[in-house]
């Protein structure tokens, strides 16, 4: 029974730190560092470094910065873009450290699961914030930011105190993410495309004649053929000059649609 509870606690801590890291990494570091240093949390040996005052201070400074940036429309998405390269690797490292002193294979497996969990929660947050930023008013950003902080602190507390409940809620979150992420994927791709253009990794594609509204070669060929037949009918006297001009104007208008 004790082994079962220890295993459940370890899994909840591993998945909890990785899930929360994808939303607000610095809040997670503060919770673990402060809780471990005050004796409220019994951290594995691999994570005791988080109790160092320098680590807690650095996490506090970064949390303070993110607290304000995360509430500015537009800047929150820029911040999420930058944090893509921080939250996911950190979530993998924290998950590997949460399993404690085990075999290297288990640590690697924990890191893979943790990185995937951090990527899922980060993508869900970043995509949702991109959608929220289509609204001009800032109140939704503030509400979403405060809700994210509340989810991190309450989720970490639940993972540490009630691991069974946390794991059940995590399954619900994964189900929601599976349903929601495909709908947000287009926004997420647009975000990465803009980052790539800004960094020079993605070149701007030239606008083709079809995209600019000009008729394509097939339409031009049909239009020229119709005008030639129309001119032949006028030359034969089948059409009057007025009828020729009317039919010519109609063909040209249809070609520009």
Structure commentary:
It is a single chain. The chain has helices spanning 2-37, 53-69, 75-98, 104-132, 139-161, 163-199, 217-236, 241-256. The longest helix is centred in the C-terminal third of the chain and has 37 residues, at 163-199. With 257 residues, the protein is an all-alpha fold. The model has no long low-confidence stretch (mean pLDDT 86). It contains eight helices and no strands. 28% of the residues are buried. α5 (139-161) crosses α6 (163-199). Helix content is 79%, strand content 0%.
- By DSSP, the count of extended strands is 0
> What separation lies between the terminal Cα atoms?
75 Å
Q: What share of the residues does DSSP label as strand, in percent?
A: under 5%
User: What is the N-to-C succession of helices and strands?
Assistant: HHHHHHHH
Please, how many helices?
8
Shape: elongated
Structural class: mainly alpha
Summed over residues and divided by their number, the pLDDT gives a mean of 86
Main pleated-sheet profile: none
What gyration radius follows from the Cα positions, in whole Å?
29 Å
Helix content: over 70%
Task: Give the uncertain stretches in residue-range form.
Answer: none
